[in-house]
């Protein structure tokens, strides 16, 4: 993970470490630095752990016609080591979760959860839709005081509600793809300007963001990391939902936002790299990334 540290007082004109063009980065160097950072941060297994100590993640996702996003996020979460995962989905869609992921717990998102005390982390947004009820669900998650990942339609809701966008709780992690980022800010095809804008926003609100792309970038309030894994075969529907599942799983297991972001980006991309080698970038899907998550985690520990 290539790391760039800056003073807490950001002067955008002095941030000389920001690459002018991400395409010009040395891929081998960024991959090497990424591997070093991840191996330094990954935790050892506790042989006496049980499902109650491996963390319980909540995923609020899915709507009629968009349940694939909830399934992908939930499946990736369970594949990434969390002890328990509860998927909050519309009551009419319970069977889709039960049949696809028998290990997952399911609760209804038709009513707003009163509390999230039993969970160690929450993710919200994949396939959720942008209805008024979805906004209410997001507001409930924002008030939970739990580590929170906001993705997909969660970000789209923020874009339409400046009061929510500008009053996010500390340590929240946003994971926009390019289109979602533009809805939050402005149309932009300049890597440097996009990164500078994101850093200023994260610094002002004391939050975190992953800019998803060929080089995914984790931005925290005082530094940012460029990830060196991943490939063009991952530019498929559902890949971002898989990343959300990995991140919420790691945070449920007790990783800090920074560590979860760094490890999550790396494992997500590495699983995609394994899928590309075995399947070809034209023919792999987001589901294939999930299938190679175990291999990706094993390769880090080895």
Layout of strands and helices, then pairs:
Blueprint lengths: L1 E4 L21 H15 L14 E5 L6 H13 L4 E6 L4 H7 L4 E4 L12 E4 L7 H11 L5 E4 L1 H8 L1 H4 L7 E3 L2 H7 L6 H15 L2 E4 L5 E3 L3 E4 L12 H14 L4 H23 L6 H6 L1 H9 L1
Parallel strand pairs: 2-3, 2-5, 3-4, 5-6, 6-7, 7-8
Antiparallel strand pairs: 1-10, 8-9, 9-10
Helix pairs in contact: 1-10, 2-9, 5-7, 9-10, 10-12
Give a structural overview:
It contains twelve helices and ten strands. Mean pLDDT is 93; it is low at 4-15. The chain is globular. The longest helix is centred in the last third of the chain and has 23 residues, at 257-279. It has a single domain (2-301), classed as Ribokinase (UDP-N-acetylmuramoyl-L-alanine:D-glutamate ligase, 3-Layer(aba) Sandwich), CATH 3.40.1190.20. It is α/β, with parallel strands linked by helices. 49% of the residues are buried. It has helices at residues 27-41, 67-79, 94-100, 132-142, 153-160, 162-165, 178-184, 191-205, 239-252, 257-279, 286-291, 293-301, and strands at 2-5, 56-60, 84-89, 105-108, 121-124, 148-151, 173-175, 208-211, 217-219, 223-226. Helix 1 crosses helix 10 (257-279).
